[in-house]
Design a protein that fits this description.
It is built from three helices and three strands. It is an alpha+beta fold and about 90 residues long. The protein has one domain: Heat Shock Protein 90, CATH 3.30.565. The protein has a three-stranded mixed sheet with strand order 1-2-3, covered by helices on one side. A hairpin with a 2-residue loop joins strand 2 and strand 3. The longest helix is centred in the middle third of the chain and has 22 residues.
Length: about 90
């Protein structure tokens, strides 16, 4: 997330929740690249520039939130940003 924010010249905070959800290490290893891709896309395509955010009356610092939750026998990763459309 930090690299994506720096390369697109945006200031973004990254928040997480659901850290108490237990995952096997090999499962997390398999998902790592996909999760990174989703977070990078949220920064690159969701979060506006600071000037755009100020013009829209938003906080100049964007926010990306990654939540992990168990849904029965599955794990859900929910990534939200407060950028375009919000």
């Amino acid at each position: 997330m930090r690299d994506a924010a720096e390369s697109s010249q945006k200031t973004v905070t990254f928040e997480t929740s659901g850290g108490d959800t237990q995952l096997d290490t090999h499962v997390l290893r398999e998902l790592k690249n996909s999760l990174l891709h989703v977070v990078r896309n949220a920064v690159a395509h969701g979060i506006e520039s600071q000037a755009e955010r100020v013009a829209l009356g938003k906080n100049p610092i964007g926010r990306v939130h990654l939540h992990v939750e168990r849904r029965g026998g599955q794990i859900a990763f929910i990534c939200r940003d407060d950028g375009k459309g919000n």
